[in-house]
Amino acid sequence: MNLYVLICTDKPDSLPVRMATREAHLAFVKASTNVAVKVGGPFLSPEGVMIGSMLILEAPSPEDVADFVKNDPYGKAGLFQSVDVRPWKVTVGALG
Fold this sequence. Notes:
Elements: E1 2-10, H1 15-31, E2 36-44, E3 50-59, H2 62-71, H3 73-76, E4 80-88
């Protein structure tokens, strides 16, 4: 298995879209079998408003990560302005 960092930036003023699809997104993440989310959560504005997402994923291949992103309810709802997927390696600390 390989690790990937998924960095997503929300479109401006899209908090209503995020909130409307949040439960479906969380259920999708929890039910995922081919891609494991090791850790994840929202980026916050200085005011504490959710404005993006960061996840560390464990997956067999970049194609599996692409399928995960494509099928995520947030992505299907058009929440993101940008999505960046990068292969990643733990050097300090540990993921449980």
